[in-house]
Amino acid sequence: MYGYVLPDKSIIKNEEQVLFHAFYCGLCFAIKKNFNQAARFSINYDATFFAILVSDQLDYSTDFLECRCIGNPIRKKPTIQTNDLLCRIADLNILMAECKAEDNVLDKELLSKPVYRFFKKHGNKAAIREPKMAEVVKRYYTILRDYEKNNESSIDKVADCFASMMKDCARILLEEKANENNLGIIYNVGKFIYLADALDDVCEDHKKKRYNPFLAARKYISRQKFILDNYADLEFYFASTVNRAIESFNCTAFNQSFGLIENIVHYGLRKKVKELFESEKKLKKVRV
């Protein structure tokens, strides 16, 4: 998960913004508890959304604390107290960070090997606690790497792999609470994450001659020209994915975080698409 799933700040209510922050901080503290301080750098907004949705669907009891953290030691902030569910999602976050780090090694990124060794060590611990999710993540990442080796040009096929991985992990966590609608949200948001990451990286991947499903069967000159030349296809991929996420949302019953999840699914995803289409370079990480 890479950090593209965010609420729309221009219309978010204060209590919803506080809730998003509280889950972000709570998951970060859970990573610290399960692993160590350095592992907290793997936290991202996509994992936060996953935690919010799963917690809501399980109607999981959440307690708030006022905490300081290493990133902001002066001011206390509302934080979801570390619980068993956040610890399980922290394990999933590390399992995915390990796979991402391994991808960077294969892509020969600078300092990728020590980073991979770091996450490999923690990933082994996470896999012991969460063997089912570890098997799911490993299986789908293996398929993704096969697609990469074969220069797979089908966007839907590659994005479906990542989306199915997120859906299957959600099914493990939700157990009997899993249904077509809440899994539909996870699946389509997962597909959105993959599409967003691929489009965001299109310039960098072209320069470094790395696999990117958008480049597999398309000519590239510059980021903006690529988006302009392929605008109809790109708009279809993103619009259809977001619309399916909204359809699943509209059929889902919520327990705790309806307003926040509505903001993200209905408005935040579309805002991110607009930013991706209009940006002349890779998006910077934003603060919510």
Describe the overall structure.
By secondary structure, this protein is mainly alpha-helical. Helix content is 66%, strand content 5%. It contains 11 helices and 2 strands. A two-stranded antiparallel ribbon has the order 1-2. Strand 1 and strand 2 form a beta hairpin. Helix 3 runs antiparallel to helix 4, helix 5 packs antiparallel against helix 6 and helix 6 crosses helix 7. The radius of gyration is 18 Å and the shape is globular. The two termini are 17 Å apart. The mean pLDDT is 94.
Q: Whole-number average pLDDT?
A: 94
**Tally of helical runs:** 11
Q: How many β-strand stretches?
A: 2
The stretches of 5 or more residues where confidence is low (pLDDT under 50) are none
Distance between the termini: 17 Å
- Sketch the major β-sheet: 2 strands, antiparallel
- Overall morphology: globular
Helicity level, as a percent range?
A: 55-70%
Strand order of the largest sheet: 1-2
The arrangement of helices and strands along the chain is HHEEHHHHHHHHH
Q: Hey, roughly how much beta strand do the residues contain?
A: 5-15%
The assigned structural class equals mainly alpha
| Whole-angstrom Rg | 18 Å
